[in-house]
Amino acid sequence: MADRLYIGIDLGTYQSTIASSAGTIHTIETVVGRPKDPVARNMLGRDVLFGADALKHKMSCDLFRPMAKGVTQDDEASLGAAKAFMTHLIETVDPEEYDEVVGVVCSPSHVSFTDKSNLVATLRGQVNAIMVVSEPFATAYGIGEFHGTIVVDIGAGTTDIARLYGTFPSDEDQISLAEAGDWLDEHLMTLIRKKYTGAQVTKDMVRRWKEAHSYVGGEVKEVLVDLSVEGKQQRVDIGDLIAQACGAIVPLIGNGIKRIIAGADPEYQETFRQNIILSGGGSLIGGVADRLAAEISDIGNVAVRCVDEPIDKVALGAVALAQDMPEDMFTSIE
Predict the structure, then answer these.
(1) At 128, is the secondary structure helix, strand, or coil?
(2) Which residue among 12, 130, 227, 274 has the highest number of C-beta atoms inside a 10 angstrom radius?
(3) Closest CA relative to residue 142, chosen from 116, 104, 92
(4) What is the average per-residue pLDDT within 242-268?
(5) What backbone torsions phi and psi does residue 237 show, to the nearest 5 degrees?
(6) CA distance linking residue 37 with residue 288, whole number of Å
């Protein structure tokens, strides 16, 4: 049995990713399903389902999304679901093959003492020690760009923005915005219902359409989808609505970037303006880097770019950090 396994976990509202020092990486939808009644339990043959499996059987289960806004929700049912989910997530990297498991867990930039306590509770018995860092910092560390850099992690529950000076960022160096992927989904759903009166859509449907077709800027694209309008199936074009919804979040994130730069050491501000990196699922919106650069161009010459493979970057940065940090940086939770 090997001595120690290092893991990095990116906890997300809609999906979570775990990477390990053994080279494995897995992404799972952050959802837990429990059968609604004995009939459903007998049909499913399980007491709990996770990820895509839970969503497939959502009409037979009570569904929990225990990591809304990237933190464990503070009620008994959600805490239980979070504990079950974390156990399942960690089991995907075969921790039983190791004497110890040490992890770095990524969260939004600002989490409360209660949030951290709940997080520790979900991990107790699964890992020996942890360190909690913000998602932007983990991304920056993983790509080796954590000095003179602004990192914007556009997640589902929050958009987290950090300025990095080559050290762990302080609370003053980071902000967390409620406007993120979840906010965008709600906005897009409102636009669809307004344009197509009587449209029957769910948030999961809207999120899938957004993830497949999101874009800002340029000519309006045709995006045809099937939806029910008062029970009648119709094929409709929502391309203009997707562009409108995605465009609505740009100035909100732009204002956050401006705040972070304005609060920086003035000698670093020019460097920050030239090193703005977008990560998280929201960085996959087509044209978002150019659109954000135009949005904040009034502060000077700016350079905005997106990381490659953003879904994996936070967890990979976290596992790299776990392997590099000294023992005294971790909190034992045995």
Answers:
(1) coil
(2) 12
(3) 104
(4) 97
(5) -100, 120
(6) 45
- DSSP secondary structure letters along 264-328: S-TTTHHHHHT-EEEESGGGGSBTHHHHHHHHTGGGSS--EEE-SSHHHHHHHHHHHHHHHS-GG
Q: Are residues 75 and 128 in the same domain?
A: yes
Per the structure, the complete domain to which residue 113 belongs is given by 2-30+66-139+312-332
Least confident of 82-86, 110-114, 188-192, 211-215: 110-114
**Strand, coil or helix: what is 167?**
coil
Cβ(90)–Cβ(304) under 8 Å?
no
- Global pTM reads 0.90
Instruction: Determine the Cα–Cα distance for residues 219 and 275; give it in Å rounded to an integer.
Output: 28
Looking at the structure, tell me whether residues 79 and 50 fall in a common domain.
no
Closest CA to 128 of 136, 138, 120: 120
DSSP element (H, E) containing 149: strand 147-154
User: What value, to the nearest 5°, has the Cα angle with vertex 59 and ends 76 and 33?
Assistant: 35
> Using H for helix, E for strand and C for coil, what is the string for 217-251?
CCCCCCCEEEEEECCEEEEEECHHHHHHHHHHHHH
Q: How many domains does the chain have?
A: 2
Choose between 76 and 187: higher pLDDT.
Answer: 187
Q: How many residues does the chain have?
A: 334
In a domain, 214, yes or no: no
Bridge pairing between strands 129-134 and 61-64:
unpaired
> Residue written as tokens 């204002």?
255
Q: What's the CA gap between 190 and 291, in Å, rounded?
A: 23
Residue with tokens 């670093």: 268
**Range 297-321 average pLDDT:** 96
**Which residue, 280, 316, 255, 312, is CA-closest to 7?**
316
